[in-house]
Design goal:
This protein is mostly beta strands. It has three helices and 56 strands. The N terminus is likely disordered.
């Protein structure tokens, strides 16, 4: 007892640490903890708003049922949390202007975040979720010491995420509420800026009430839209946005009121569903030079006065755009063919309207998808390219982009014709084209897939095509500014004199087809025997490897190489006096000329140099070293006409502009380009380039821009690349063309013979491949890259 009393007595001397008081204070502290916990439930932060940093994020009220996120939680609705499709083993959460918060992904997902340029990214990795305070540092996920587990989500852990394995994606909602519409058939637009110099759009999710919204169109603008009479409205996602009447003002209004036509990305009508381009395809947009699309505009056509809607904000025109970083393998673009000036006669079963334009260019692309648009009386809209059916659609069905059959080719340098068919038996009045829903339209949207974009608009009633692609103009100060770079070369012992070069073999922009002479050189006499070695080489310039070779035993002395829009090879043999068509793999298909016989007659050739091929079957042979002419053949190889070139000294190279029915022929020794009508042979003023030397080769890039390769063989030895610039040219038949030019010296080229030029979309540059016939029996191909700077 004394011992116990002694302890009690000692504790009493210390006051509050008596046994009775100790119990009381423990109770008080427990009460404080409980009260603090209750209070914290009311002040716990939700997911970050656009003004929060990622480290402030807290998971709150996340509902999990049967292993799936369900419902709109307070956290993810306020923050605009949406979920993207899986990317490999990962899925991306994205903070946008809004979202429904639902997701098909499991509750044990790991969310990692990063903040870049104000855009917030969340990445689902390995099936678990980060707790509070998670941050990304140097590409890895860390967690603050005070972090706690995510509310209502169990087994939350932190997993490292490698930055290089995460493809960043995000979504952006564009909304025009119906509350702005005060009468029927009003058009309103709104815009957003794009966050990066370049980004890819991989899909569109439309949300619109067909009872109130007639159609929606997304297009780009080169400058920030600045409407004079903008209206500020609050949309259903709680955002304040500016809209403007884009029938009263342009879709891309500037301060001066004028605007340039934007590039069309997407269009919707009549309840069309989502559009997903897939992992390898997409639209590239942004502020980067060569893109010219830093803003996107949503145009919405409202059918009715908004007062007819119970809640006009819920009857908005809305499109959710799905973005991702980087460049796609297949670049998408849209070409619109339209006719907006026509009248339909009443009580007719078969009224037709056409929208036809010639789309310039020497190559082809693939039809990726298409969409038709017309109104009440339309029964069918079809597309033909170079007279061949390409697509057809019913305008009374939902107006979505329908995926085309794989491999459907669109040939440039040909007429693209949209034919709209109508039945007007239900009206006694004429029906006029117009923007109202009681008017008619004739629109065919053609979505194109290639390695470069081919945006454009055809005003079919005028027959005028406006191409909306990079200009590819060589900068005036290209040499001084250091824009020209030597990227590599192919120079191997078994490569002979390089007679012909083509870039884009097999549809691959990095593959170069080389036509060479093995160990043979051009002599005054003709070689009668064939070269035993392969004379075609496929060089992958991207990795520097030769992939294959072929063509042994077919040629005596290779000279010109042309690849047509179907991939067939057209070659000339200056010693065999013949021209050939081969398949892409080198199988012989057609031969013209008399073998081993120099001929001046229409049916023969004399040292022919190169071939130009029309979309419509016929072809033209530059003939050549001992005939100053061009011979035109039909599709069966029968000679049709000769186009004489008086005074020409070696017609060495030839290209064709199908849209203008014009041949450009290199009059080599005179240093001139002859401009010749492809059918009657009449000449326009030639292009004199003799100050740069001899014109050895002519070529075109994807868009039909013309280039010449010149060699000042007898004086300075310099090799010069010349780009022709057109002035006064239209896309109508029989137009008159004048050319200006800009030149650029190519260093280290001593024996130029042929070249090829391609637009490098990812680098905004021109890839130039120059083939040499020397020294001696050897040859070389050199790859230059010319940055286009701010010119494109």
């Amino acid at each position: 007892m004394q011992a116990w009393d002694g302890i009690v007595s000692r504790t009493n001397r210390r006051g509050i640490f008596s046994r009775d008081n100790y119990v009381k204070w423990c109770g008080v502290l427990a009460g404080v903890v409980v009260v603090a916990w209750v209070i914290s439930m009311f002040f716990r932060p939700a997911l970050p708003s656009p003004n929060h940093s990622l480290s402030e994020a807290k998971w709150k009220d996340l509902v999990v049922e049967d292993g799936f996120f369900t419902g709109e939680t307070e956290s993810n609705t306020d923050a605009g949390l949406t979920m993207e499709e899986p990317v490999g083993d990962e899925t991306l959460f994205t903070l946008t202007d809004g979202g429904n918060g639902s997701s098909p992904y499991g509750a044990n997902a790991t969310a990692a975040g990063a903040v870049e340029n104000g855009t917030k990214y969340f990445t689902v990795v390995g099936g678990e979720t980060l707790g509070d305070g998670a941050e990304v540092e140097d590409g890895n996920v860390t967690e603050a010491a005070e972090a706690t587990a995510a509310a209502n989500v169990t087994n939350a852990t932190v997993a490292p995420v490698a930055e290089q394995n995460v493809e960043k994606t995000w979504t952006q909602r564009m909304i025009v509420p119906a509350s702005v519409a005060t009468k029927e058939d009003q058009y309103f637009c709104t815009s957003i800026p794009l966050p990066h110099e370049n980004q890819t759009i991989g899909g569109f999710v439309p949300r619109a009430d067909v009872d109130f919204v007639h159609h929606m169109i997304l297009q780009t603008c080169k400058e920030e839209p600045r409407p004079k009479n903008g209206i500020h409205v609050t949309t259903s996602d709680g955002e304040m946005r500016e809209v403007w009447d884009c029938r009263e003002e342009p879709v891309c209004p500037s301060e001066e009121g004028w605007s340039e036509q934007g590039q069309i990305l997407y269009a919707w009508a009549m309840g069309a569903t989502d559009f997903d381009a897939g992992e390898d395809s997409g639209f590239v947009v942004g502020s980067r030079v060569g893109l010219g699309s830093p803003y996107i505009v949503l145009q919405t056509h409202f059918l009715k006065d908004a007062s007819l809607a119970a809640d006009a904000r819920d009857h908005a025109g809305e499109v959710e755009i799905r973005f991702r970083e980087g460049y796609p393998r297949n670049v998408l673009s849209v070409d619109l063919l339209q006719n907006s000036r026509f009248a339909l006669r009443p009580n007719r079963t078969d009224e037709t309207v056409e929208a036809k334009c010639c789309r310039p260019g020497p190559r082809s692309a693939e039809l990726f998808a298409y969409r038709v648009h017309a109104h009440e009386y339309a029964t069918n809209i079809s597309l033909k390219v170079a007279g061949r059916p390409a697509a057809t659609g019913d305008p009374q069905l939902p107006h979505f982009f329908k995926m085309a059959e794989p491999g459907t080719k669109l040939r440039f340098g040909a007429d693209w014709t949209a034919t709209c068919e109508y039945n007007t038996t239900t009206t006694d009045l004429p029906v006029f084209a117009g923007q109202g829903h009681n008017n008619e339209m004739c629109n065919m949207y053609v979505m194109i897939s290639s390695h470069v974009p081919y945006f454009g608009v055809c005003w079919g009633e005028l027959g005028i095509s406006a191409e909306q692609h990079p200009s590819c103009a060589i900068p005036e100060n290209a040499t001084a500014a250091g824009y020209l770079h030597t990227m590599g070369s192919l120079d191997t012992p078994d490569l002979g004199q390089v007679a012909g070069v083509h870039v884009g073999y097999g549809g691959d922009a990095s593959k170069v087809l080389i036509f060479h002479r093995a160990g043979r050189v051009m002599e005054a006499f003709d070689h009668a025997d064939k070269i035993e070695e392969d004379v075609f080489v496929v060089w992958n310039a991207a990795d520097g490897k030769v992939e294959r070779s072929f063509g042994a035993g077919m040629f005596s002395l290779p000279h010109g190489l042309t690849v047509d829009r179907d991939g067939d090879l057209w070659c000339t043999d200056v010693d065999a006096q013949q021209a050939y068509r081969l398949s892409e793999d080198g199988d012989l298909q057609l031969v013209v000329g008399i073998e081993n016989e120099r001929s001046h007659d229409l049916g023969g050739l004399c040292r022919p140099t190169e071939v130009a091929v029309s979309n419509y079957g016929h072809f033209f042979v530059a003939d050549g070293y001992c005939n100053s002419r061009v011979v035109r053949f039909d599709e069966f190889g029968d000679p049709v006409a000769e186009l004489k070139l008086p005074g020409a000294v070696v017609a060495h190279s030839i290209i064709l502009d199908d849209c203008l029915n014009t041949l450009l022929v290199a009059d080599r020794e005179n240093g001139r380009i002859r401009v010749v009508d492809a059918y009657d042979g009449t000449e326009q003023p030639n292009v004199d380039l003799s100050s740069f030397g001899k014109v050895y080769s002519l070529t075109q890039d994807e868009y039909g821009n013309v280039y010449a390769l010149l060699w000042d063989r007898d004086v300075t030895g310099r090799t010069t690349l010349v780009q022709l610039r057109e002035s006064g040219r239209t896309r109508r038949a029989n137009s008159f063309t004048l050319y200006d030019s800009i030149s650029l010296e190519l260093p280290g080229i001593f024996y130029p013979h042929d070249f090829a030029v391609s637009y490098n979309f990812g680098r905004n540059a021109l890839d130039v491949y120059v083939g040499e016939t020397g020294p001696g029996a050897t040859g070389r191909v050199t790859w230059f890259q010319l940055d286009l700077g701010a010119s494109a």
